[in-house]
């Protein structure tokens, strides 16, 4: 999540990436006769399943496996499909998205597949029934009226949904980045890149850290690119098991 502060007479450095929730996790448990066990981490949902822990000095993982030892990851042997809903996006958005996706891909080794533009606006629940293919990661722009989690100082939300594709192991299957339309339009290119990369960091499984030297710090700093701790965490998140 990305939060801005009202900044009277201050420069863009007063824009603040904020804490708040990060990963949206929907957990399916196919072992219980297809019944969906849903636990949400973030995005305005009650927290019924949460394991957030320190992954090291410069990074934290959004969610750990049920054993509490390893982070939940995407399947590195499959491309992460994503779509972009350009409604409300400023001109030049595609360059920002493409470059930030490339940053995360390079840092994780995960491959992304741009499916195209979409009019899909299901920002809050992308998983669908158990027997359907998960929707691609959705990147889009909205106002707080449509996405209440963008209300107040929040200028962006990012997260992923995980499923029990194997017994006792969760795998991310879809995700979302939604950016607060109006403040995003006012940002310069560098800050837009920082915000989108930060939110994509959540999508691949990073949590915020307290270190202002990392892009996953909750507030904007002079850092606008991935830091050493971010890169360490992203490398691990790209090294999950293939299914
Ligand atoms: Zn965040």
TrEMBL record:
Single GO term (MF): metallopeptidase activity
Keyword entries, A-Z: Hydrolase, Metal-binding, Metalloprotease, Protease, Zinc
InterPro entries associated with the record: MetalloPept_cat_dom_sf, Pept_M10_metallopeptidase, Peptidase_Metallo
Domain Peptidase metallopeptidase: 70-239
Top EC class, one word: hydrolase
Gene3D superfamilies: Collagenase (Catalytic Domain) (3.40.390.10)
EC number(s) reported in the record: 3.4.24.-
Protein name: Matrixin family metalloprotease
């Amino acid at each position: 999540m990305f939060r801005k502060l009202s900044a009277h007479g201050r420069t863009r450095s007063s824009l603040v990436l904020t804490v708040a929730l990060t990963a949206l996790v929907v957990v399916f448990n196919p072992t219980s006769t297809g019944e969906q066990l849903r636990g949400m981490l973030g995005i305005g949902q009650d927290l019924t399943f949460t394991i957030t822990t320190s992954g090291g000095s410069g990074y934290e993982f959004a969610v750990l496996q049920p054993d509490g030892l390893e982070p939940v990851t995407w399947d590195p042997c499959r491309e992460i499909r994503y779509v972009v809903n350009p409604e409300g996006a400023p001109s030049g958005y595609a360059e920002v998205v493409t470059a930030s996706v490339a940053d995360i891909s390079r840092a994780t080794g995960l491959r992304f597949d741009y499916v195209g533009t979409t009019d899909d606006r299901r920002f809050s629940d992308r998983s669908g029934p158990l027997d359907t293919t998960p929707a691609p990661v959705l990147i889009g722009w909205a106002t707080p009226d449509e996405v209440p989690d963008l209300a107040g100082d929040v200028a962006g939300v990012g997260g992923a949904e995980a499923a029990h594709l194997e017994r006792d192991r969760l795998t991310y299957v879809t995700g979302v980045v939604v950016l607060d339309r109006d403040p995003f339009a006012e940002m310069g290119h560098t800050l837009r890149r920082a915000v989108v990369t930060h939110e994509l960091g959540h999508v691949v499984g990073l949590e915020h850290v307290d270190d202002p030297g990392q892009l996953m710090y909750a507030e904007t700093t002079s850092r606008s690119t991935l830091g050493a701790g971010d890169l360490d965490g992203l490398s691990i998140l790209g090294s999950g098991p293939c299914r």
